[in-house]
Amino acid sequence: MSEHGGNSIEVAQRFGIPANELVDFSANINPLGAPERVKALIKDNLACIEKYPDVEYRHLHQALADAHQCDTASVIAGNGATELIYAVVRYLNPKRALLLTPGFAEYRRALQHVGAEIIAYPLTEDAGFQPDLRLLDTLTMTQPDCIFIATPNNPTGLMPDNRFLQSLVQHCEEHRIALIVDEAFMDFLPDNRGLIPHIAATCHLYVLRSLTKFFAIPGLRLGYLVSGDRAGIAWMKSQREPWSINALAARVGEILLDDQAYITATHQWLKLQQHYLWTHLSSCPELTVWPPSANFLFFRCHQPSLDLWHTLLEHRLLIRHCKNYVGLDASYYRIAVRSEQENQRLIAAIQHIFEHG
């Protein structure tokens, strides 16, 4: 089985279920679908597939730089943020790295590719799955070359305290530790600009962003990395495979971040449906549900004999089990926030399962 969500075709084939009958809560993709401007742009620019894209992606990099009020020398776009996880690790070539667990699997894979020693820093349920200033002490003791942290974290959906993040940035800058911050879900937090505003004053901060989740374009694949380490950005651009971003994805990326109508509609949908899911799941005594900050919820099922993943699959609902995350077991799950009708269907199914065994 895939280590990621969004594997509905694989699950459908394995269990003999028509893929079009599954409602996929395992992938954290905006259920509003791709913006209409994106669909129109693709339709009107199909001829661009007959030419090679600009190997430097000048217009795309300029649009991203404009959106974050920085120079294009501080930005590199990629075929999804995952490409850039591997690119920044190849550039840093760390001997020792610290990973917060549970966390996104590709950090570990990328580090293993360069033979880095990996130090695990467990985020425990007792501590609310949140890092605190004790992490800085661990950095001092272990002296890693780099650290990965996701804000909000995947799979817990939790956003670390802002003062803690400020202290972490300062500590890593002072001790020359590369701090890679994955903000793949930051766009779902309307009142949080993330750490990109800090890149002008730092050399060891690398901020990853994804356009896949918020703008519902996982099939196009598009992400970017922003850093004050311009030499590092230049190295990554020079070492990447040519044309890793297709022409349509590059063209779409030029218009996404100024689509205010779509951005506003997404925030309005999430405010309502996130609260709906949180309220109803939290009312189930069989579950512990952590307060969400992004477009997905993380919870634990306290019925050890119940395989909620398989049971919901019988209802044609696919959720994300978290047993393959380091530090978690089969009792932990993650679900995406979807449309009102789909969310109602999920809640009804879960209530039915707990009421009828």
TrEMBL record:
Annotated InterPro entries: Aminotransferase_I/II_large (IPR004839), CobD (IPR005860), NHTrfase_class1_PyrdxlP-BS (IPR004838), PyrdxlP-dep_Trfase (IPR015424), PyrdxlP-dep_Trfase_major (IPR015421), PyrdxlP-dep_Trfase_small (IPR015422)
GO MF: threonine-phosphate decarboxylase activity
Functional note: Decarboxylates L-threonine-O-3-phosphate to yield (R)-1-amino-2-propanol O-2-phosphate, the precursor for the linkage between the nucleotide loop and the corrin ring in cobalamin.
Protein keywords: Cobalamin biosynthesis, Lyase, Pyridoxal phosphate
Segments forming a coiled coil: none
Enzyme class of the recorded protein, top EC level: lyase
Signal peptide stretch: none
Organism: Xenorhabdus aichiensis
Catalysis performed (reactions): O-phospho-L-threonine + H(+) = (R)-1-aminopropan-2-yl phosphate + CO2
EC number: 4.1.1.81
PROSITE patterns per the UniProt record, alphabetical: AA_TRANSFER_CLASS_1
Cofactor: pyridoxal 5'-phosphate
Pathway info: Cofactor biosynthesis; adenosylcobalamin biosynthesis
Name of the protein: threonine-phosphate decarboxylase
Residues covered by the Aminotransferase class I/classII large domain: 21-350
